[in-house]
Design brief:
Strand content: under 5%
Oligomer: single chain
Shape: globular
Number of strands: 6
Largest sheet: 3 strands, mixed
Helix content: 55-70%
Strand order of the largest sheet: 1-3-2
Length: 668
């Protein structure tokens, strides 16, 4: 310190000192600050946003936010550990670049060599008591504070807490964890087997019961790694942890140690659940199918059947019938679930909602999906159905213009804590909402990263919809070539989904088709794809999708539908058959275009803006401005043009306007 203090005035050196706000500065530095030689800056905690920016800098390109947030959380927001982790993940293939985005490959494994080497070096330099206490905590976390204190002393524990190497968990009894997952993993992987065994045998065993097993997975796996045994009942009691991505691997390791013949099916079910949580949906489906259709414990068969139905809603498994050669379930075939079964009722509610929505009965469809959502909310064992139900529910809310109900659904906790398929469905639903409101840049920002993750997720209908929405977004932004690439991507995904769904009423399939056709027409400046698709929907009796096709046709400024009164009248007729606020908004839109009165068009624009139908409102304002100008009503034309420009500014900004925003309001 004395040398540094001499360098500062003599050579103009810059001294940067960091200190925690709860501890005083060293006296020499404090005196320099008092004398005016130092400036004080308060640094906020390292955030997800900064971690994302750091990951993009290290990797030299776009990074999927789920990947950067996961790595940031794993590192405990420690910049040094995060940098090491990013390099380790890239070298091992855990981080891969797909479609221009760095994303996580759920099938890759990383041993974190850089992190392990760094943590091992830090731990070697510690006093023996601190090092052994840290190793015990890492190997068995969470562990009781009194146990660590009794074996290694209060001083070692206090120093580790002061250095933020470990943290206290709230509650009673007081429990300890390592400061971050990566620091814990680095410590675990650096402990030699002999020392690990000595630690395990030298520490008294905690009270391990069926109730505490899900929270004591580290102790369970440590026990197994040391060659010790646990009862099958305790190993299987950890099953609930299999549904969380953060603990699925540990639950899988516990289940793999089950040895009793009477418990093997339960262990296989835990394995399938862990595969789903980790994103291996295609691998999980056949295992669930076998458990659901082959003799075994009734509760295992029922649980497997329910999970298979949930995957069926996402196109991972056929929903309509059991596979060839497979015996049907005791209660009913997979295509006709028992009406008294809550899981079966959810599937039937979704099917009925799709039929109602496509026929134009939007409020009735939302009633059906709301019942399914309520059933999931009230019973945590039905969480597996949330991704498939949520997608349909959001579509139904869109056609009821219930945006105030949509927003809470799409504001979940940090997505790195969720299973991949749930996070992906939320992002696709978010992109769909933005497109439906006429915000293509915002939609693209939501959909581009998730498509990189969906490439190998085994969710063909979801991938097809995401690619179709992104194709339309690219076309609206003038990127015709990229729009056609995404359109082809959607069609390929839809072809692979065809084997999973041959149902007449398939909402996700029809939505994908209509947005692919809209993107193709917009990119080519034609209207043929949407016209042909509208005829197909008409023959199927799909009123809503036919109306959507005509709506998108009219919004295409390069197509004849913009000025074709026949298309506009047809939209009005179809919209009149669509129940609810969404149908009423389309009626307003079509009627204003047919009437072609500038005052009526401006009024329709204001009404559609209030309904967050911004693309439709922009066309009305554009036509109103032209009509006013033709009648030499300059002030009115300027007013409509200003409203139009405000909407276009919202489109181009990529920022989603808050609920209640309209272009004509002061300050908007």
């Amino acid at each position: 310190m004395a040398v540094l203090l001499q360098l500062i005035p003599g050579f103009g050196a810059t001294l940067v000192a960091t200190a925690e706000s709860r501890h005083p500065l060293p006296p020499d530095l404090y005196q320099l600050w008092e004398d005016g030689f130092l400036e004080q800056f308060f640094l906020p905690p390292f955030s997800f946003i900064e971690a994302h920016a750091l990951c993009e800098t290290i990797l030299g390109g776009h990074v999927q936010r789920r990947a950067s947030s996961l790595l940031a959380a794993m590192s405990g927001f420690n910049v040094g550990l995060l940098c090491l982790a990013v390099n380790d993940a890239r070298a091992s293939g855990f981080l891969v670049r797909i479609d221009g985005y760095w994303t996580i490959d759920v099938r890759a494994h990383c041993d974190w060599p850089g992190v392990v080497e760094h943590v091992r070096g830090e731990n070697i330099s510690r006093p023996p008591e601190e090092r052994q206490a840290l190793e015990l905590i890492a190997l068995s976390e969470p562990v009781a504070l009194e146990v660590v204190e009794r074996h290694f002393g209060q001083k070692a524990l206090e120093h580790l807490l002061a250095q933020h190497e470990i943290r206290l968990l709230p509650g009673r009894p007081l429990l300890l964890r390592t400061s971050s997952w990566l620091r814990g993993e680095g410590t675990r992987l650096s402990v030699p087997r002999s020392r690990s065994m000595a630690l395990r045998l030298g520490v008294e065993e905690p009270v391990l019961t069926a109730e505490t097993a899900p929270t004591m997975l580290r102790w369970i796996t440590w026990t197994l790694d040391c060659g010790l045994t646990l009862s099958d009942e305790l190993l299987l009691a950890a099953a609930p942890a299999a549904d969380r991505p953060s603990t699925a691997e540990l639950a899988l390791r516990a289940a793999s140690a089950v040895s009793g013949a009477g418990h093997l099916d339960e262990a296989k079910l835990v394995r399938a659940r862990a595969l789903i949580a980790e994103g291996h949906l295609r691998e999980a489906a056949p295992e669930l199918r076998q458990l659901a259709t082959v003799g075994g414990p009734p509760e295992v068969k029922a649980d497997a059947a329910h999970r298979l139905l949930a995957l069926g809603l996402l196109g991972v498994a056929p929903l309509d019938a059991a596979p060839l050669g497979a015996a049907p379930l005791d209660a009913a075939p997979l295509g006709a679930p028992d009406a008294s079964d809550p899981a079966g009722l959810i599937v039937e509610s979704v099917r009925e909602a799709e039929r109602l929505l496509l026929s134009g009965a939007a409020p009735e469809a939302v009633t059906s999906t709301s019942a399914a959502m309520d059933a999931i909310t009230s019973d945590p064992t039905l969480d597996m159905f949330l991704p498939g139900v949520l997608l349909r529910h959001v579509v139904g809310l869109r056609y009821n213009l219930a945006w105030d109900l949509v927003d809470p659904l799409l504001l979940p906790p940090a997505d790195y804590t969720m299973p991949v398929h749930l996070s992906a469905c939320l992002d696709v639903a978010r992109g769909y909402v933005h497109i439906s409101q006429g915000l293509p840049r915002a939609a693209g920002a939501a959909l581009e990263p998730v498509l990189a993750e969906l490439h190998d997720a085994g969710l063909p209908p979801v991938s097809a919809l995401a690619a179709a929405l992104l194709a339309y977004s690219e076309a609206l932004c003038g990127n015709s070539r990229q729009a056609m690439v995404r359109a082809r991507q959607s069609m390929v995904a839809q072809e692979s989904a065809a084997g999973s769904s041959q149902r007449q009423h398939d909402l996700l399939r029809d939505l994908s088709a209509v947005f692919v056709a809209a993107a193709q027409d917009l990119a080519a400046g034609t209207s043929g794809h949407l016209m042909n698709l509208a005829e197909e929907f008409h023959s199927q009796g799909s009123t809503l999708m036919e109306a959507e096709a005509f709506s998108l046709l009219i919004l295409n400024a390069a197509s004849s539908g913009v000025h074709d009164s026949g298309s506009q009248r047809r939209l009005g007729e179809l919209a009149a058959a669509v129940h609810g606020p969404g149908g009423a908004a389309m009626v307003t839109f079509a009627a204003a275009l047919v009437d072609n009165d500038p005052k009526m068009l401006e009024s329709a624009g204001r009404s559609l803006s209030a309904d967050r139908q911004f693309a439709h409102a922009a066309l009305c304002y554009s036509r109103a401005a032209e009509g006013y100008a033709a009648r030499t009503r300059t002030a009115a034309s300027r007013r409509a043009s200003v409203l139009l420009e405000r909407l276009r500014g919202a489109f181009d900004s990529g920022i989603v306007p808050p609920l209640g925003w309209v272009p004509g309001r002061a300050g908007g």
